[in-house]
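Please, structure for the following, as tokens.
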Amino acid sequence: MNLKMQRNSKPPLTVAGYCFFLAVVALPATLSGQDTLTLPESYRLAEQNYPLAGQVELLSASNSLKIKNLNKNYLPQLTVNGQATWQSDVTQVEIQLPPPLPAPEMPVISKDMYKVTFDISQSVWDGNVTRYQKKVETMNLQVDQTNIQAQLYQLKERVNQYFLVVVLLNENEKLLNSTKSQLQEKLGELEAGILYGAVLQSAADALRAELISLDQRLDELRIERSTAYHMLSDFLSSDIPETTILALPEALIDDPAWENRRLENEVFNLQQTRLGIMRNMVTTKWNPKFYLFGQGGIGRPGLNMLSNNFEPFGIVGIKATWIPWNWNANKNEKKILELQSGIVKTQQSAFDRNLKVQSDRDLGEIRKARAVLGKDREIIDLREKISDAASHQLDNGVITSSDYVNRLTEERQAKLNYEIHRIQLIKAQLAYLFNQGKL
């Protein structure tokens, strides 16, 4: 029988959630040669081997390079410029002297001009623009890395599904083997009775037919079980032998108060912090900027505009820039960031509400599973008594072999229902913890 594992859209962990993990034995870092696999170890393997995990270091390396580039804003900036021009007119100086004095000869400036310069600029104060740019990049890194951690956390939900399916298949196989042993034992008794003519051959044949049917179901179950182990191995990217025992935790939750510890919630908070820094960075655009600069080069003309020769020249100074009015562009940028902050708030509120609804549903499933399990125990006790009575009745010829097989099947089904409900209880508890970020 397959257990249908319903997928919850968003799952998390609380203080009570840590308790059941304390009861689980910690495993070695690798699966080679180990006989037992726990859920916490499965979570670790899933996160460790998932391709997305490698992005954390890549993002960190990328951010480091971005910060290095921003730090270069504090270093001198050197540029080389070349220029060749022709102009339609040039400066002319005419000096008229009273006769008979001759007019002095003035230099004639060429209309084609050339200049090669080396310019150096050193920021003295950039209005804190670079400082806030670095803060934004740092927040970008935190948002991206936390978002990846939130995505990796989602893997736990799928691990729970694969893990619990394997556990149920193992329990079902145990019950089938137990029933098979009972039938084989009863068949031995009937065959002894056949030898003495006390039991009909048809009674033993009915049990043999049921044993063949059980073997058929066991073959199917072993294939399903093998497939489930392979799926779990593939998802964890680790070789998990089919002999591995999956240790199922007994998570105990006494209807604790609602608490959202999901990493997505932290992502929303980091996004709000980033938007606050970006608003402050907009203000820096109003700040004046101060620079030291220097220029050296050669040109025709040089600094002496009346010289028609190539001459070297140099200039040093300090420069200030300030834009007191930019047509409300900065004000509009702040309004845009405020609107984005409102969007993030609504997303966070919707996320929190959905988790609350899911947690209420999970608590309902927990209460229902607990109530059903209490009745399952009573049903099993009664079915065992009925099977024992049917066994004696078969020995005395009061009922047929088919009747006995039916009673035995009903007992096995009652026990299987108990295991299904037990696993469903653990599934609901894990979903409750997952939805609140406590796994």
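DSSP finds nine helices and six strands in the chain. The first helix runs from residue 15 to 22.
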